Amino acid sequence: MTTAGILDRARESFGRKAWAEAFALLSAADRESPLRLEDLQRLATAAYLVGRDADSTDVWARAYHESLRRGEAAQAVRCAFWLSFELLNKGDLARGGGWIARGQRLLDDGLRDCVEQGYLLYGVALRCIFGGDSATAHDTFGSAAEIGERFRDPDLVTLARLGQGRALIRMGETAPGVALLDEVMVAVTAGEVSAVIAGDVYCTVIEGCQEAFDLRRAQEWTAALSHWCASQPELILYRGQCLVHRAEIMQVHGAWSDAMAEARRACEPLSRPTRQPAVGAALYLQAELHRLRGEFVKAEEAYRRANQLGREPQPGLALLQLVQGDVDAAQGAIRRLVAEARDRVTRSKLLAAHVEIMLAAGDVKAAGVAADELRTIAADVDMPFLHAVAAHATGAVLVGEGDGQAALEALRRAWRTWHELDAPYETACARVLMGLACRLLGDEDGAAMELDAARWVFQELGAGPDVARVEALSRKTAARTTSPLTMREAQVLRLVAAGKTNRAIAADLFLSEKTVARHVSNIFAKLGVSSRSAATAYAYEHGLV
Asked: What is the phi-psi region of residue 362: left when phi exceeds 0, alpha when psi lies from -120 to 50, beta otherwise?
């Protein structure tokens, strides 16, 4: 076949989104005779979409220089933008910024009133948001969007509005931020933007929904991304991220085996032909599932591999250390993480683990401070998922403080929301705490029912460590149920074991001292003991305290 024939086939393949075929044909034609500018741009795009990042950046650099040679400054700026776009999204801020500077110099040399100015502004804003300056990023994205609208460029408008939405979410303005994400998805699902832009928008919108704790939207757009990827079998770039997002949704909904399979599948497209940053996220998800199943050796290995690939292994690794009994290590890790976290999104993802670990370490005060901060963030964000996280943490702290009634109120709110979100593991965890709250109130039957319901869910999920924990708690409930004491006598005994006098017990239970004395006498008689210390020892031995 002649070079012209190969190019015709390559362009046709590109047009029908057969990216691997287009890449192979364009590469073959390029070996026969150097490609012209338009075909170089096609080759760079196809290389990017099949995951050949290094090839893509090399070809875009060739296209940049070819544009300069032909005296087409606007095309050179556009090539510089795509180079910066790819490099910045890989985390290469220095080289990405360098290409933005090159493009800007061309504009400063006289090419000012053009759409390319907006594309470079988008690159500047992207650097700002990666650097943590969301306010400046928001304003710069806005300027880019205005230029895109003036020149009727849907790719630029979509990218810039997307950036504004993410910036607003990070600034704490969740509702308008999410509204912008919905707006840009209208353009994407209507097919108004190019393939590279569409894939980037899908993944970025899903990440934005996760930052906003909007589980329902994340699920909806993940399904749309799956459909989009399925329509392009040769697409590699976004397929791995899609599988990771699908696995995250599956984990929340309790389909752990399917989630593990998807996370493992994600590692293949994310690792070839060059490794993508999201492979660390796939490994972290695998580590989380191993931890929840009780496969601790596999979990630790997956956390460490994720860390090697640039994914912070926390708070999962700290929770693994906790369940393995190394409370000091877990406490040290989570304290460091919370102290280092500055932005609200990062802190909100750490505080629930901080509450759990601090309670296990006996530091109820620190756990309470973290739960208070979670409630404040949840009130600002106003998303059901985060409200449930905050209510759950608050309930756990109240159980730790011994306030069973207030704990039940908070935990029931969390349970209802988890149930509505179809999050069975979190629902079961809430029921465990509800059982402990019932126990604090002397309702052993209620405690047994809650623990039994939680154990059934944990068994269905394969959450081995949680099954063992609930069975241990249930044995304590059984010991209390077979106790010779009445509910009121058991309540009095717990206060005796806490070192309280009859007068203090009477005040706590709104009884007379005489009634308390009679209860204490009955307790001594039923247990066959003659002192408060002996009664206290019995209470601890039989799980009554």
From this structure: left
